[in-house]
Amino acid sequence: MTKEFNDEQFKNYFRLNRDQFIEVHEIIKKEIDAEGCTATRPIGTEEKLSVFLRYLATGNSYRSMAYSYRMGDRTVSNIVREVSEAIWKLMQPIYLPQPTEEQWKSVADSFQRKWQFPHCIGAIDGKHVVIKKPGKSGSSYINYKHTFSIVLMAVVDSDYKFITIDVGSQGRFSDGNVFSTGVLAKKLLDHTLHLPAPTEMRPSYYLRI
């Protein structure tokens, strides 16, 4: 299917260009290979990645995706789970590692240079991701907008790129609650984030109004 589109259609369909698709596929293909599968036509690794990316791009149901790819909805569900786990396992250490002290300093310098915000090592916020109500969950996932959600808590640098994320908390929790009980807060408390030592604010840091 990936060969049927021109470059513009490809990026619009998968939200990745061809080079990015190939890069992701090369990293995870061994992890999602159907080696040993007894099916008459095992699902290929490129097709699995295609299903996964299209699922993310559209937000369609597993059943709708199943019709599009001529698969069972359970198969689509398994593919999404398998590829998700492979991407996190193999790509997180490459693209979202814990920053070093020097990287934190670089982030702070960038915030000062671009936004005149001194001694800032990240901007943090939460995003409610709407979901279908999990079975037997009661009101655990109902948020303040009266929808069901899980919370994506993220810290970004001055270019809006993720530094760290915490995803999966129930929608009923506030951003403050998610942060205080999350991994980031625990690392702050046990001093394992490799943050730079405090320094005095230089005169040039002060904003002129």
TrEMBL record:
This is Uncharacterized protein. Residues 124-189 form the DDE Tnp4 domain. Keywords: Hydrolase, Metal-binding, Nuclease, Nucleus. Residues 6-88 form the DUF8040 domain. One of its GO terms (molecular function) is hydrolase activity. Belongs to the HARBI1 family. It comes from Photinus pyralis. Pfam families: DDE_Tnp_4, DUF8040. PANTHER family: NUCLEASE HARBI1-LIKE PROTEIN, PTHR22930. InterPro entries: DUF8040, HARBI1-like, HARBI1_dom. GO terms for cellular component: nucleus. Signal peptide: none annotated. It is found in: Nucleus. Its cofactor is a divalent metal cation.
